[in-house]
Amino acid sequence: MQRYTYLKLALKENGLTLQQAADRIGVTKGYLSQLINNKIKEPSAQKLQALHEVLHLEYPPREKNIGVVFGKFYPLHTGHIYLIQRAASQVDELHVILCHDDVRDFELFQKSSMTKQPTVEDRWRWLLQTFKYQDNIKIHDLSEDGIPPYPDGWDEWAIRAKKLLADNHIQANAIYSSEPKDAIRYQELLGVNTVVIDAERSFMNISATQIRQEPFHYWDYIPTEVKPFFVRKVAILGGESSGKSTLVNKLANTFNTTSAWEYGRDYVFSHLGGNEKALQFSDYDKISLGQAQYIDFAVKYANKVAFIDTDYVTTQAFCMTYEGREHPFVQAMIETQRFDLVILLENNTPWVNDGLRHLGSKAKRKEFQDLLEHLLKENGIPYVAITSGNYEERYLESIQLVEQLLNDKKENSDEISRFEDRSE
Questions:
Q1: DSSP per residue, 134-148
Q2: Residue 349: predicted pLDDT
Q3: At what angle do helices 45-54 and 18-25 cross, to 10 degrees?
Q4: What's the angle, vertex CA 12, arms to CA 7 and CA 15, rounded to 5?
Q5: Residue 126 in marked binding region
Q6: 73 — alpha (psi -120 to 50), left (phi > 0) or beta?
């Protein structure tokens, strides 16, 4: 880092323009510009001190102790957090480098039990959210595309790492790692002292490989900001009075987790005075958005699985039944918001009129059920039909389906070792 470059960042952080800062310390804007761009060889100590006071900086400036941590964070886990927090406590400023490689990351995903692949943006978000209250932790990313997989490619990797550090004016005093063999290469190739923390994983005995293979087995090692990514979403579908709301409540209680209620019913009371007769075509996009918010909340606080009472297919089916046409916004939600398990209940339970139901005849119930099945198939949504009209049988069958979903995993940990370590 050049001598006074840090003052540029301090100006920005204090929300000051060059002119404002110059006025406060009694110099011209041009002088200050030359100073922070290191064009004045021997600046006035008095003016420097005044500038540091305006920017709330220590003077004379103390050389910062800078640390670096490299990692894939695929996914971020509590072992990573322990390493980062230990490192952050030893330095003034810690730079966390998120390493990503499209080919490698996709292969890791294919050999995992994850139902969707974490994007680079997902991993950025996990880091930013987890450390958002620690100003001394800065996040960067390093593309490793095209570099031979570990344990090869160190020289190419080092060239990119050096460039990243130089481009961001990071003069590291130490690189922190939990991998002794990686620490040796960091020191050799980057010329920076390395510090190994918890190499034996005596405090946090976990790896990203283990979580990718069995996320629910290692649930306690997944950080709060990462857990929603792994939560399985189970949607319970059915027509009016099919028992879906009661079943959702039972399952949520059984699995000690959250549920998302049918937002449409709440909407009728909050926006339509409790009477569906006021419902019109323009309400269905609002209902879908409200349902999405309910789902997001349930997923955020879920314990491995979240149960959803009514999905967007059901909302579309009601729109087509009552309004006679498909709603484009609801259709967009169907196409973009998918669930891990969809259970369709046969509409063969006793009819209960709660004041908001109008499809009580046998013919109307069957017509709506057929429409649900048609929309599911038309949109390519796999589902499991539960046809029993017995409430206990439905409950037990649903439990079995959810347990299968949560226990689904692959046995590929031995096949992916060549991708690990350098930035695991």
A1: -TTEEEEEEE-TTSP
A2: 65
A3: 120
A4: 125
A5: no
A6: left
In whole angstroms, give the CA distance from residue 135 to residue 150. 32
Q: Confirm or deny that 260 is annotated as ligand binding.
A: yes
pLDDT digits (tens, 9 = 90+) for 256-292: 999 999 898 888 888 888 777 788 999 999 999 999 9
Is 145 annotated in some ligand binding site? yes
Question: Is 250 marked as binding a ligand?
Answer: no
| Tokens, residue 332 | 């967009």
Q: Is 150 annotated as a binding residue?
A: yes
pLDDT digits (tens, 9 = 90+) for 27-46: 999 998 998 888 888 888 88
Q: Which amino acid is at 319?
A: C
Q: Is 147 annotated for ligand binding? A: yes
| 64-219 has the same fold as 3-53 | no
Q: What is the pLDDT of residue 359?
A: 53
Domain 64-219 of CATH type 1.25.10.10: no
Strand spans (E) along 284-351: 305-309, 341-345
Residue 178 annotated in ligand binding: yes
Question: Do the annotations mark residue 157 as ligand-binding?
Answer: yes
pLDDT of residue 2: 53
Strand order in the sheet with 137-143: 137-143, 93-100, 66-71, 174-177, 194-196
Annotated domain spans of the chain: 3-53, 64-219, 230-409
Q: Who's near 288: CB < 8 A, 6+ residues apart?
A: 312, 315, 327, 329, 330, 333
Contact 164, 140 (CB under 8 A): yes
Is 350 annotated as belonging to a binding site? no
Per the annotation, does 71 bind a ligand?
A: yes
Q: Is 205 annotated as a binding residue?
A: yes
179 annotated as belonging to a binding site for a ligand: yes
Is there a binding annotation on residue 73? yes
| Annotated binding residue 59 | no
- How many other β-carbons are positioned within 10 Å of the β-carbon of residue 253? 11
Asked whether residue 204 is marked as a ligand-binding residue, the answer is yes
Contact 1, 10 (CB under 8 A): no
Q: Is 77 annotated as a binding residue?
A: yes
Judge whether 388 is annotated as a binding position.
Answer: no
Q: Is 201 annotated as a binding residue?
A: no
Position of tokens 């879920």? 302
Q: Is 154 marked as a binding-site residue? A: yes
Asked if residue 197 belongs to a known ligand binding site, the reply is: no
| Residue ranges of the chain with per-residue pLDDT less than 70 | 1-2, 349-361, 409-424
Fold type of domain 3-53? 434 Repressor (Amino-terminal Domain) (1.10.260)
Q: Return the CATH class of domain 230-409.
A: alpha beta
Taking the C-alpha atoms of residue 268 and residue 136, their distance in angstroms, rounded to an integer, is: 48
CB-side neighbour CA atoms (13 Å) of 197: 20
